[in-house]
Amino acid sequence: MDEIAEIVHRLQSEYIPGLTLDQCRESVLAVLDKREAQHALLTGIALDVLAEKDLLPDPLAAIVKSDAPLYGVDEILALAITNVYGSVGLTSFGYLDKCKCGVIGKLNDHSTGRVNTFLDDLVAGVAAAAAARLAHQHGRSFVVDRDARPAEG
Amino acid sequence: MDEIAEIVHRLQSEYIPGLTLDQCRESVLAVLDKREAQHALLTGIALDVLAEKDLLPDPLAAIVKSDAPLYGVDEILALAITNVYGSVGLTSFGYLDKCKCGVIGKLNDHSTGRVNTFLDDLVAGVAAAAAARLAHQHGRSFVVDRDARPAEG
Amino acid sequence: MDEIAEIVHRLQSEYIPGLTLDQCRESVLAVLDKREAQHALLTGIALDVLAEKDLLPDPLAAIVKSDAPLYGVDEILALAITNVYGSVGLTSFGYLDKCKCGVIGKLNDHSTGRVNTFLDDLVAGVAAAAAARLAHQHGRSFVVDRDARPAEG
Amino acid sequence: MDEIAEIVHRLQSEYIPGLTLDQCRESVLAVLDKREAQHALLTGIALDVLAEKDLLPDPLAAIVKSDAPLYGVDEILALAITNVYGSVGLTSFGYLDKCKCGVIGKLNDHSTGRVNTFLDDLVAGVAAAAAARLAHQHGRSFVVDRDARPAEG
Questions:
Q1: What is the 3-state secondary structure (H, E, C) of B97-148?
Q2: Which residue, of B2, B43, B69, D29, has the greatest Cβ tally within 10 A?
Q3: What letters, b where the CB count within 10 A reaches 16 and e where it falls short, cover B17-31?
């Protein structure tokens, strides 16, 4: 959890001066409180665990165990989390998925024998959503501060 | 606005006993308060208006004016609104877009000379999002009532 | 398979005069040949089967078995199939998911003891994709016939 | 066009040994031949041009001209292009959108007075789609070579 908050901090601290790790942690918790996020996490983690226990049918077992690059269901589930805070999280998600920063890189390490095909993408999805949530809050309060109006529309 | 609330009421009243039009209206307003929805609406309505005033370049002008069935940008913008309340709104959006219920059908009437290529889809997107929001609220409070726990996760 | 082709025929025959069931069947096969569709189908069907055999962990097991209305992962996987032929399939997918036409209604029948939480949506996704594929082909050849130009761009 | 092919080459050459710039160029052309891509490009470029000519209504004009970070419609249109080759392109898109590699960085340069709010994202979307297309082709022929079977399903 703290490791996800650190990724969120790295993503957003250049845009939001004075952003604290506590604010990032609170944003991650808010994402995890969303039903859409919970469903995607429950489903993806179950698929990882079932692959590890050899309970998935073939050829799905082989695809999930090898984290086959053309298998896109892990990205799709992760994106369902990111999308809850709108399209501005897409960029962060893709970036995290490519750079494998921080804990995401550890999860993506295939030498451990553990299957984390879904988990690394889901963590990236949660971090991108939490960053997007902060961006929206910051954007909104900035507008309010400057213009004393409730919103931009 | 009231016409959108009526569509939401029709979509959700069979699932939520005692749902009032006021609750639907409040849910539509909550959707319209989302920045993602405001951006999609501003963009889509501007494209309709510019098409009507012959300010779009060709061939885009002809495509938007004729509401060409293979032009999917109107659906994409509308879906960005629906997605803010998760994937459960997708079904309602597709259904509304096909049945052209209520005000959506009036907006889709091509005989008036007005260009509403984007507006009919955007209204369907707002209605589907407002219905999904009510479904989430209802689902959540239902779980709370039964289990006396704050959430399902 | 023939039942999916019939749904496609019902969706598109009003737009494409002279559309045959064979053309619909061929379009369904083309969708099923796409890797994106295969991955979504393998994953969703495995989740249904594992739920039926009581091999999913809780609370996911209960969610999938009851086809909980706020669980959106089934729609997300189905939409990944539909999206391969662009956003024009979204409307058909939502419509099929709501009307539960033909074989989709049979699959959605919860009285049989079988778990088809994913399968009914996946079938709707395949049918919507096959219909979108025909719409694209028809649109394209229509433009070619009329204008003797290769495409609209 | 050659600049987009170079980005595709940079994205995929580590995964596909012997990939040539000509193959990348051919893949970009295949993406541009897709109706979904053409519609997204026509719409996004029109919005950039209209913003530059001060023909957009407020507040949309200000939002598009400033490439406001919370405006997500540009990403949404670009993603519609990427999605045509499935979810594997999402990661590349996000990465390109963040790193602003090559021509994308030049387009995103706000000091020129030109409005490229949509164009930089659209170019990233085309490049990500062309890279995903190559990945699919490579994956598929790899499977065929090894197994002498038409597909992995």
A1: HHHCCHHHHHHCCHHHCCCCHHHHHHHHHHHHHHHHHHHHHHHHHHHHHHHC
A2: B43
A3: eebeeebbbebbebb
Q: How far apart are CA B128 and CA B126, in angstroms?
A: 6
Please give the Cα distance from D7 to A120 (Å, whole number): 26
For chain A, the residue count is 153
CA B24 to chain centroid, in Å, comes to 13
Report, in angstroms and rounded to the nearest whole number, the Rg of chain A calculated over CA atoms.
17
Instruction: Supply A114's token pair.
Output: 């553990």
CA quadruple B133, B137, B138, B140: dihedral sign: positive
Q: How far is D85 from chain C (nearest CA, A)?
A: 6
The CA-based angle D92-A49-A70, given to 5 degrees, is 25
Reading the block at residue A68, the tokens are: 């086959």
Closest partner CB to B72 (pick from C69, C88, C93): C88
Say if residue A93's pLDDT is above 60: yes
pLDDT tens sequence across B118-149: 999 999 999 999 999 999 888 754 333 333 33
A window 78-107, beta carbon within 8 A of C = 80
Q: Looking at this predicted complex, what is its ipTM?
A: 0.85
Is pLDDT at A146 greater than 70 in this prediction?
no
Q: How many CA atoms lie within 13 A of B34 on its CB side?
A: 25
Tell me what the mean pLDDT of segment B50-69 comes to.
Answer: 93
Distance CA C36, CA C43 (A): 11
Q: What is the pLDDT of residue D28?
A: 97
Give the C-alpha separation, A92 to D89, whole Å. 14
- Residue A136: the pLDDT is 87
pLDDT at D5: 95
Quote the minimal CA–CA distance from D21 to chain B in Å. Answer: 31
Q: Which band of pLDDT confidence, cut at 50, 70 and 90, is reported for residue A150? A: very low
The dihedral built from the CA positions of residue A116, A121, A125 and A127, taken in this order, carries a sign that is: positive
- Kindly state whether D137 is in contact with chain A, defined as any CB-CB distance less than 8 angstroms: no
Tokens 């809850």 sit at which residue?
A84
Distance (Å, rounded) from C-alpha A43 to C-alpha C44?
10
Q: Is the pLDDT of residue C60 over 80?
A: yes
